[in-house]
Amino acid sequence: MRPTKPILLLAAAVSLGAGVALAASGDPERARILDGYAAQAKAQTPGFAGFSAERGRALYLGPHTGGKVADTPGCASCHTRDPAGTGRHYKTGRDILPMAVSANPKRFTDPAEVEKRFERDCVNVLGRACTAQEKGDFITFLSNQ
User: Fold this and answer.
1) Which terminal residue of the chain has fewer beta carbons within 10 Å of its beta carbon, N or C?
2) Using CA atoms, how far apart are residues 99 and 84, in angstroms rounded to an integer?
3) Global pTM?
4) CA 134, 135, 141, 145: dihedral to nearest 10 degrees?
């Protein structure tokens, strides 16, 4: 018996969903980090329905107000609008490795380093700590770049 079109469409949709999830995680450590942020986000926000690459993109690009440094209204201020490109620190001029996982596969795989960067950079860009949902959205966006 041959599958009908609705069954094929459903199978394709399920496969696509699995592919998106795999693309977002890719590395077991990155997946654990995202799982941790998802658990925190569920506890902080009862209606939490998952991470959004689109919200992560908006967080990355900005512009935001309230940050400590007027020269950095968004992550893209130092990391470039293309997350696969090499960034440059606004003050020191030093190169910054790409944020996109496709260009820097080790990005978001060390939990201590990830949290250290969020603690510093969220305050500099947003003027406050990032929420677990924002962190997960941000990683989800950059995991698919």
Assistant:
1) N
2) 6
3) 0.81
4) 150
Asked if residue 122 has pLDDT above 60, the reply is yes
What is the token pair recorded at 4?
A: 């009908």
Tokens of 59: 């967080």
* CATH 3.40.30.10 is right for the domain spanning 5-143: no
- 8-37 mean pLDDT: 61
φ, ψ at 122 (rounded to 5°): -65, -40
pLDDT value, residue 24 = 53
Q: Indicate the domain borders of the chain.
A: 5-143
| CB distance 71 to 90 below 8 Å | yes
CA angle, 74 then 117 then 75, to 5°:
10
